[in-house]
Amino acid sequence: MRRRRVPFHTIELAVTTSVKNPEPIAHDFAWARERMVQEQLIARGIADPRVIVAVRKIPRHVFVDPGIVNRAYDDSALPIGDKQTLSQPYMSARMSEGLRLVGGEKVLEIGTGSGFQTALLAELCFNVFSVEKIRALSRRARALLDQLDYHNIALHVGDGTIGWSEHAPYHAIIVTAGAPMAPQPLLDQLAVGGRLVIPIGDEQGQTLMRLTRTRNGFKKESLGECKFVKLLGKYGWRE
Ligand code: SAH
């Protein structure tokens, strides 16, 4: 455990300024990732061990632009092009935890974006179906997820506010963009006992909500405040 005594900023410096080796090496990313897990997730209350194991495993830095690779494990959302963002690590973990996955589920994600959250879900459930409205983002995510050897992810380009009815019902649905209200098709595509985790609010901010389908309605819980880009579409914000 001698390595733990190396102050973290030394490593960060090595990542950003190594001249001989301009590509940051995997070892540095592993350190940055572990620090992120400790300081941003565990210290703030992420407790589901499966979520923690999954975040530890996924190389978040491959999902960001090469130009900002050194910020991949920062405590913030990051641009992924087309005015969209890769969510802050804490938020991805919080949403994943909120879905209460145990491993055998079929999950629908709306807003593939970079594909980072998709990879996280693929580690936590049986099958992931993910819809993205911007084709270029979906293509890029497909390439990355193939490279990482995920075989339990299906991607689709289209308006995710109408869901993906062919594979319904889902045990869990996650929406990674802010909505004015829960889209009715997503509620309809949720199995009884299933959970929908979705940020609901306006452009200034949203409340992360968990809606659990019961035999005769939906149980609503708040999981805290958040700020996401807009969910645009038929049952979201108007474009
Ligand atoms: N989970 C992603 C977050 C991406 S930001 C990540 O971690 O990288 C939200 C994404 O939702 C954007 O890529 C945006 O294009 C997408 N989006 C917005 N409205 C959508 C809709 N109606 N259907 C599908 N995707 C949508």
The first-level CATH class is given as Alpha Beta
Helix amount: 25-40%
Q: What is the overall silhouette?
A: globular
Fold-level CATH name: Rossmann fold
Radius of gyration using CA atoms only? 18 Å
Order of helices and strands: HHHEEHEHEHEEHEEE
Total count of domains = 1
Put simply, the count of helices is: 7
- The CATH superfamily turns out to be Vaccinia Virus protein VP39
Average residue-wise pLDDT? 92
User: Judging by the overall fold, what is the CATH architecture?
Assistant: 3-Layer(aba) Sandwich
DSSP E strands, number: 9
Query: What's the end-to-end separation, in Å?
Result: 53 Å
Descriptive labels:
seven-stranded mixed β-sheet, Rossmann fold, two-stranded antiparallel sheet, alpha/beta, disordered N terminus, 239 residues, globular
Please describe what this structure looks like.
The protein is an alpha/beta fold. The protein has a single domain (25-226), classed as Vaccinia Virus protein VP39 (Rossmann fold), CATH 3.40.50. Helix content is 30%, strand content 25%. The protein contains 7 helices and 9 strands. The strands form 2 sheets. A 7-stranded mixed β-sheet has the order 5-4-3-6-7-8-9. Strands 1-2 form a two-stranded antiparallel sheet. α1 (8-17) crosses α2 (26-41). The longest helix is centred in the N-terminal third of the chain and has 16 residues, at 26-41. It is globular and about 50 Å long. The protein starts with 7 loop residues before the first helix and ends in a 13-residue tail after the last strand.
